[in-house]
Amino acid sequence: MFSIFRSSKADRVTTLTLVGGTPTAPGQGASVPRSEQRRTLPSEQDRALSAEARQWLRSLPTRERPLALCSMYPRLANRLAAVWPDAAQTEAVFDELMIDRRGGRLGFAPLVASELMRLHRLHEVRLPSSDGN
Question: In angstroms, how far is CA 55 from the centroid of its own chain?
Answer without folding.
Answer: 20
